[in-house]
């Protein structure tokens, strides 16, 4: 039996911890609205589904235990987060001129790609499914038993994502105007991405 009474509170607390994906959701909601941010979350969930598939097949667990694989993924994550941070700071207050004229589907595709790459390039996400979730399974459980547990975590992550998106949406008026200067929001999120990149830079494999 899965220890749901222990898993669900732990999963919610873990999902609510601020991270790069949650920051992306908040920023996307503030700049372009909840629908745009929710589209981006689909990319995050696609990355999670891929990681779960890797873990169930045995590949993800092997990668999680490999120091070399952890380092490769970690450096990819660091590079991407630093790129997001520098880009946000460089274009602070620019108003997204490059994508403003693009259609909604094109802009949503950008949000999906950003969330997908951010989640997939974070070694902590792989460790979540390969090491954290199995702790709540009974001893000797088959690898496929991880699927319902992973699905439950993704659902909990969805609740946390909606809460962060709600916070981002609260930064907008009923129209398209922000309650805070666009430049300040870009600078704050840029610093946030750089901080997460710096944290990942010095992270060590558990």
UniProtKB/TrEMBL annotation:
Annotated membrane topology: Multi-pass membrane protein
Main localisation? membrane
Transmembrane parts of this sequence: 41-60, 72-90, 136-165, 185-202
Supply the InterPro entries for this chain.
LeuE-type
Enumerate the subcellular locations listed in this protein's record, separating them with semicolons. Answer: Cell membrane
Report which superkingdom the organism of origin falls in.
Bacteria
| Keywords, ordered alphabetically | Cell membrane, Membrane, Transmembrane, Transmembrane helix
Q: Name one GO molecular function term.
A: amino acid transmembrane transporter activity
GO CC field? plasma membrane
Under PANTHER family, the record lists: ARGININE EXPORTER PROTEIN ARGO, ARGININE EXPORTER PROTEIN ARGO-RELATED
Report what the protein is called.
LysE family translocator
The organism named in the record is Streptomyces reniochalinae
